Amino acid sequence: MIKGFKDNLAEQRERLKISEQIVNNRIHNSPFGEKTKALTRKWSQYESFGGVGWGVFEITPVIERAEGAYLYDADGKEYIDLLSGFSVSALGGCNKEITKIIQDQAGKLTHFFDLPHVERVKLAEKLTKLSRIKEKTRVAFGVTGSDAIELAVRAARYYTGQPYIFTAYGDYHGLTYGTMGLTGKGCLD
Count of domains in the chain? Predict the structure, then answer.
């Protein structure tokens, strides 16, 4: 008998459910050193199993530092960063030039909520020019990947006039109320 979409969906949702016993088994069977295993146990005590780390991966190491394309766990074991910090660190971890820019900016201003500041005005101007859109263009800033997804959904609905968004089941799109309906991974246990 060929399984239907609903059967496959139900099986996939069942596989995504995570219990404390499953997490403990994952930690016990992991290839990590003792410091990393201890930190992973602590992580499991204080953070929801619905987070990305538990829902997307079997088990992920607790990373202590990064250098370029390399990550290092609490035991000093080296990993190649194939995720680039989920794409936010495409220039490598602790890139010296980027680190200096961040340090310099932190000495001037670290946060001004969603209100204008000098660097924000410069970035908005640069982004509108890089867009190559001929009509008058403005940007909408977000502070998280979930914000980016929600803004993209709003822009797509505005542009197309259509209410529906098509996503691949099992993708991860964020944990805000607006993105949870698009996300097939994890749950907030």
Answer: 2
